Amino acid sequence: MLKKFSHGMIERNVILLGVLTLITISIGGLAQVVPLFTVESTIERVQGVRPYTPLELMGRNIYVREGCYACHSQMVRPFRDEAERYGHFSLAAESMYDRPFQWGSKRTGPDLARVGGKYSDDWQAQHLRDPRSLVPESIMPPYSFLDRPLDYRNIQSHLRAQRALGVPYSEEMIANARADLEAQARPDADGAAFSSRYARARQGAFDGNPAVVTEMDALVAYMQMLGTLVQFRDVTPEQLRQQ
User: Fold this and answer.
1) Grouped pLDDT means (10 residues each) for the chain, 243 residues
2) How many CB atoms lie within 10 A of CB 98?
3) How far, in Å, are 92, 115, 134, 151, 220 from residue 76 at the CA level?
4) Collapsing DSSP states into helix, strand and coil, what is residue 214?
5) Residue 213 has what DSSP assignment?
6) Please, which residues have CB within 8 angstroms of residue 2's CB and are 6 or more apart in sequence?
7) Which residues form the Cytochrome c domain (predicted)?
8) How far apart are CA 217 and CA 186, in angstroms?
9) What count of Cα atoms within 13 Å lies in the side-chain half-sphere of residue 22?
10) What pLDDT shows up at residue 1?
11) φ and ψ at residue 214, rounded to 5 degrees
12) Contacting residues for 145 by C-beta, under 8 A, at least 6 apart
């Protein structure tokens, strides 16, 4: 009887109900948040993860601008069927420099977390220009307009903004942002300095035309990098638990 009376009294008293709800939520929130202050980082350190190259960063901007995340996720869940189709499950470290992350919530098309290197540059560019020429059943719209020149006049400012958010771009990377972007999009350019700043970054005429740096170059360069930075054969569950 006492329990029924107490419960009914709380439900009928809006102020009391609000205060008790706030207390309950606060206790639960503190139980989740406080332990995080005892760890250095909630993201495992995985060898190979690096900031995006200037060209890849511009490509990621185009990916976000065109709403690619609405149909494609970038997160392989730790389930057998996903691992067999897409590869190793996603690690938090792989998106540690993403603002915002591109995990997605819907797959009209396939997941792209491991798409890098799965197809050639020519295939990716043609698929973007005319999806149904390669995949007849595709419902993806064409993006042939991406063959227009890429506007990268503000790339240095962009890297500075990313550094303000915590991405470890050095002064050297910022100072050479334009040169690095152009070097990556031109396979015949001297890429020694560029490669020294961005490990495992590949040069190429991603759109098939080395004469002009286009939005297609940037987007294909970004997609061809996805899932290629971490050597998953060297990553074991035991290593992840220790990091």
Assistant:
1) 64 86 92 75 76 98 96 94 91 91 90 96 98 96 97 97 95 97 94 94 95 97 95 62 45
2) 14
3) 11, 11, 24, 32, 20
4) strand
5) -
6) none
7) 54-163
8) 10
9) 6
10) 47
11) -115, 170
12) none
